[in-house]
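Dear Dr. H.,

I hope your travels went smoothly. While you were away I took the liberty of generating a structure for the chain from your last submission, since the lab meeting agenda had it listed for discussion. I wanted you to have the full record in hand beforehand rather than looking at slides cold. The sequence, exactly as received, is reproduced here:
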Amino acid sequence: MFEKLRELYRIDLAIDLGTANTLVHVRGEGLVLNEPSVVAMMRRGNQPKVLAVGADAKKMIGKTPGNIKAIRPMRDGVIADFTVTAEMIKSFIEKAIGKRWKLSSRLIISVPAEITSIEQKAVRQAAHRAGVQHVYLIEQPMAAAVGAGLPVKEPRGSMIVDIGGGTTDVAVISLEGLVASQTLRVAGDKFDEAIVNFMRKRHNILIGQRTAELIKIEIGSAAPLEPEIGIEINGRDLISGVPRSISVSSVEIREALEDSLRQLVRAVKATLEKTPPELSADIIDRGIVLCGGGAMIKNLDQLLSEACSLPVFVADEPLHAVVNGVGIVLEDLDGYKRILL
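The corresponding predicted structure, in token form, is as follows:
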């Protein structure tokens, strides 16, 4: 009887806690929230006050006065600001389910593959501070593989490359475990940073993070396009100090991303080199699956396919692969308990 009552009042959640975006899946309801991992804080004495979280806070980046700061509490896939992360998780939970939150509820959070025990503890503590009693962790490449429909429970090799905002996870999976993996601190944020630096050096113009992200999405590519495309952007001239508009081509942005993409290719090759021969044969047959926001860079699959001499595919829902996978695990915790940390 007690168990039935607990089930009745319990609301289980799955969170893809990303450096760039946080997505929330509610058991029985599916994906209910997808917002930027940004918090706007206002200084008020020694106690900063949270002004906005998510999309509202992201609008403030680069536009706030001195007493207000829009920050991203997640850096390189791990918690950079413990207190703010806890506030962010609490806010997203309240946005997702309102007043229905119950102490008996369970929460699964995705984390990078090579997260340390100290970083794991920080994630758990942030979730507990947000009011969650039962917290489980799952590695992001494993969650992405489940979300992409790969046979993670079978004795067959599957390779996933999850390019998020702060980290890129490369992993070979078999029998509910990571056989070979590597976490690279080169992902969406580094791509944006590379574009900002390129614009400063090549055009003597300073652009913001949001403009760099727009350029990456609109014309970023990993291999030549047919035809090449361009975009007009606004920034501040570093010589005159006044606003200026310039046209930028996909050829230039490919040059800006070249070093970051080279590191990505090296990480994939290094993981393949650590893979047992029997599983390598499976990967030759099944190929490599890309997911995450970075997987949407134009012709990235082509670049990796040529570099590794393997078929490369982009997942059906690359942006939602991780949260979909965590959601599938949430719906069948007993069936997937071996893949939880």
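Two observations you may find useful: Residues 143 and 326 are 5 Å apart (CA to CA). The radius of gyration is 21 Å.

With kind regards,
E. W.
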